[in-house]
TrEMBL record:
PANTHER family the record matches: RNA EXONUCLEASE 5 (PTHR12801:SF82), RNA EXONUCLEASE REXO1 / RECO3 FAMILY MEMBER-RELATED (PTHR12801)
Keywords on record: Exonuclease, Hydrolase, Nuclease, RNA-binding
Annotated protein name in UniProt: REXO5 exonuclease
Record keyword Nucleotide-binding present: no
Length: 735
């Protein structure tokens, strides 16, 4: 009997923001599986991966979480089929980034007569304010502590962290975080091979601040070697035969060699520390230090040449020299610290990279093979990479990914197509070609006329305005001298209040309350409308505006959202209760799977509400009945079905606390432009949803399908992306 694949992901709450690396982690395991030694992703789990029929990634170009919730009712298929949803950290062009760190091959606003000489690539000082390095660090020269990664940055970029489940069993260097601007720098680099366990270290190099080599050791892997990765590592089977040094020996030596305030420097150092299975608190990562837009990274080889004037990782050599790489990363960090951000920005590395890439493309035009409205990229021998990219891993196994998209979407020029290519043509091609490929990426777009930053700004303001209205209720009338404190206490039992103001323009006073969560506002409308509060029988309602006329429809659809199945909202908790306390109190509820206790993202304090996710929908229904009227620690609880999926908590909080940066006349102008085109946009979105539905229905059973709204970066700010995923089964595909 054929086994059915299924997907499990505990994405309720603030931990549901997924980085591009974590997404690749999932795609790698789904495409390669255990037989190619890919590891289960840390944030979700695929059961019976070997039975997957294929992987299909649908990318909605230049669309964000904002688009999904603005056109929530139009995305009928997406919200009813894909049970797992997550916020996606804004990243560069997704299909191109699969090819490795350098993704921007085609110049943007390139001056005529560009050459690769550095004198012609210096940026004018007036343009520096837009440089990502200046935006991140400012223009002033600072000490090295300003460039070490914070704990949050380390988490975001996949560094081993003390206490993290992913770092279980890792060894700490036992260095503290008492670093100063005088702390010693050490360059570190490792080479790895592929074993039955995964990536294991085969060579380690450590250099001091003067570039002197302190450690350059071959290391024998613990598990059976499947691929020595000699092209990258330079390590062969013959070299490792006499080696006795093991990983534990290297860990011990590094602990002894590093002083308590040591700062490690490396390029994508997270991979090295993961392979070493070591935790170190103070790091400078040169792949992040030399910041680029949209999360892209420069290669170490390029930076060494452009910044230091040094050639490393030469093709004539067999593999990389880790001592050379460690020294290059160290010198890059030292250059950055000594010269300061302004001097580095003035190098105009983006322009230098563009010139270099244009030269490469002109030398080898045969690298790109156009095929109709899409392409099937076949890489016989990819160029050397400091870290193997995702598609490189697929190529090793003989898999040839399919990529289809519209011309102009791919800033690298990798996706070639006809000027007339439409979403309909792409869909038709996908229906023909996807069944022939194990791994496919399909790009759809609303079209350039709907992707301008001015429209994005208007869209953002409309969503923020509607969200504010949905979080707001008006209650009254009250007596002239009513007790505001008792009103706030009563309405506070429905959930966390952001603001309460007394409305005095009316004959009798009313209150305007804005909540922090949608469920609280809805609970107030449902439970307090017609109730007696502060000695008055009151009416509770939301603001009446044109945008709110479909509010009840939206609330109903949110309740029916597949991601809210089995999730309930509970309010009226005492702020002193911890997550452990609540786990204990709710332990008697049957089939309780996850508890999420929201907190203020500035103060870190827990709010007086929580979300409970149950394994079965009926258990959630039973829990609702049991909890309403339940008293916990002297406080009466109120509950209802969840409305906003867990990943929305952080997003709603950020929108709720955002301040408009534009002048009102500019904003109204943008909103007017949006209103003119929004009716057409709704039709486009509805059609797009229909295309995805048609493609999804054509997929084989047991196909992993992921839909990505990659996020938007514009002059008006960034918007996080959104991911929806699920493994197709016949039951759900009938929706």
């Amino acid at each position: 009997q054929e086994k059915s694949c299924h997907l499990s992901a505990a994405l309720l709450g603030e931990d549901s923001e997924i980085s591009q690396d974590q997404l690749f982690e999932l795609l790698k395991y789904a495409a390669l599986g255990k037989c190619h030694n890919a590891a289960q992703p840390s944030w979700c789990r695929i059961y019976h991966q070997s039975h997957l029929a294929g992987v299909v990634v649908i990318v909605l170009h230049e669309m964000s979480q904002l688009h999904f919730y603005r056109f929530y009712l139009q995305f009928k298929h997406l919200r009813k089929v894909f049970q797992h949803r997550f916020t996606l950290a804004t990243s560069a062009n997704f299909p191109v980034s699969l090819y490795g760190e350098e993704t921007n091959l085609k110049p943007q606003n390139t001056p005529q007569g560009l050459t690769s000489t550095s004198s012609e690539c210096i940026t004018k000082s007036s343009d520096l304010q837009y440089d990502p390095i200046i935006r991140r660090y400012g223009g002033r020269k600072q000490g090295l502590t300003s460039y070490t990664l914070t704990l949050e940055e380390q988490k975001k970029n996949g560094y081993p962290i003390e206490g993290s489940p992913r770092s279980k069993g890792y060894i700490s260097t036992e260095c503290d975080q008492q670093r100063t601007d005088s702390s010693p720098l050490f360059g570190l680099d490792c080479e790895m091979c592929l074993t039955a366990k995964g990536n294991e270290v085969t060579r380690v190099s450590l250099v001091d601040a003067q570039g002197q080599c302190l450690l350059n050791e071959l290391v024998k892997p613990e598990s059976r070697v499947l691929n020595y990765c000699t092209r990258f590592s330079g390590v062969t089977k013959k070299m490792l035969l006499p080696v006795k040094t093991r990983l534990s020996d290297i860990q011990t030596r590094l602990k002894k060699m590093l002083p308590h305030d040591a700062v490690l420097v490396g390029h994508s150092l997270n991979f090295d520390l993961q392979a070493l299975e070591m935790i170190h608190p103070s790091v400078i990562d040169t792949s992040l230090l030399f910041a680029r837009n949209e999360g892209r990274k420069f290669k170490l080889k390029f930076l060494a040449k452009a910044v230091l004037g040094k050639e490393i990782q030469c093709e004539q050599k067999l593999g990389h020299d880790p001592t050379e790489d460690a020294r290059a990363a160290l010198e890059l960090a030292q250059f950055f610290i000594e010269q300061g951000p302004t001097k580095v920005a003035e190098l105009n590395l983006e322009m230098l990279l563009t010139a270099e890439k244009l030269a490469e493309v002109s030398q080898n035009k045969a690298a790109l093979q156009p095929k109709g409205c899409g392409f099937q990229e076949q890489l016989n021998e990819p160029p050397p990479l400091s870290k193997p990219c995702f598609l490189d891993c697929l190529q090793v196994t003989g898999q040839k990914p399919l990529l289809l998209g519209r011309q102009g979407l791919d800033s690298s020029g990798l996706c070639q197509s006809n000027l007339s290519t439409s979403n309909k043509q792409i869909l038709q091609r996908a229906l023909e070609d996807v069944p022939l490929s194990k791994f496919s990426i399909i790009q759809f777009s609303l079209g350039p006329e709907y992707l301008g930053s001015h429209l994005h700004a208007g869209l953002y303001e409309k969503v923020r305005s509607k969200l504010t209205d949905m979080l707001t209720i008006y209650a009254g009338p009250f007596e002239e001298n009513f007790c505001v404190k008792s009103v706030k206490k009563e309405f506070g039992r429905c959930g966390p209040i952001q603001s309460l103001t007394v409305v005095t323009e009316t004959f009798q006073p009313y209150v305007c309350i804005q909540y922090e969560v949608l469920e609280a506002a809805q609970l107030a409308v449902e439970s307090l409308n017609g109730a007696e509060v502060a000695g008055s029988c009151i009416k509770v309602q939301r603001p009446v505006t044109a945008a709110m006329l479909d509010c009840n429809v939206l609330i109903k659809e949110l309740e029916l959202d597949v991601e809210n199945e089995g999730v309930i909202y509970v309010a009226g908790l005492k702020n002193s209760l911890t997550e452990t306390d609540l786990q204990e109190e709710f332990s008697q509820l049957k089939d309780l799977e996850t508890l999420f206790l929201p907190k203020d993202l500035q103060s870190g304090k827990h709010r007086n509400c929580c979300f409970l996710k149950f394994q079965k929908s009926q258990s959630a229904v039973d829990a609702l009945e049991a909890i309403n009227g339940w008293t916990m620690k002297g406080s009466e609880l109120r509950s209802r079905n969840a409305l906003a999926p867990g990943h929305l908590w952080r997003w709603i909080w950020q929108m709720n606390h955002s301040k408009g940066k534009q002048g009102k006349h500019i904003l109204y102008e943008k909103m007017e432009q949006l209103s003119d085109s929004e009716q057409d946009l709704r039709k486009k979105v509805k059609k797009l949803d229909h295309h995805i539905k048609k493609l999804y229905r054509s997929l084989q059973n047991n196909t992993l399908c992921i839909v990505l709204f990659p996020g938007v970066n514009s002059t008006h700010g960034s918007q996080s992306g959104l991911g929806l995923m699920g493994i197709k089964d016949e039951g759900r595909s009938a929706c």
